[in-house]
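User: Fold this; tokens only.

Assistant: Input:
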Amino acid sequence: MRVRNIAGVDQLLPEFDCFIERPVENKGRWKAVFGNSNPLHIELGMGKGQFITSLAKEHPNINFIGIEKSEELVYKALQRLGDMRLSNLYMICENAENLKEIFGEGELERIYLNFSDPWVKARHAKRRLPHRKFLAIYSNILKASGELRFRTDSLMLFEFALEEIKATAMQLREVSYDIHSKPLEGHIMTEYEEKFTRMGKPIYQCIAVADKG
């Protein structure tokens, strides 16, 4: 998702109460940050934050962290919140490679990975977020039987993800080649999902669980 550069955005982000500037300082102590022992879910690559913000509103007894590497997109997501303060939602600006520096082993219950860059050229395969090097990170920070929920409009990336998951200790629990082929109760869509669904494109989803047995 491309967005125009915002002058001084690095100085603007700390002005928001729900932005955490140095998340590495909270590794292993996110329960204290939120002030409760509720389950912790993250969205990796939250874009402008529509999905994670909607989740936080719908599920006040779950803690959420939206993660995005673009400072401009994080700023847009924070602006979306406006004056609305959700006590169960924080946002951070970080890369996927650094997740083990931010979360302790088994600290998460669920990871959402929605419409990430497919990096279509084969030589860029290791940059794809469902690549096995990232799956190893996700598996580490998820608790036993914690979930990775992956959603995309790219068939190439989806089938790549399925093969990568099969090559790891994670276990596939659910695979759908068209999640909108049947009614979905309480389903929350991302901005990309809304766009692609209007275009008539199928949306692929799989759920994998961390196997630590």
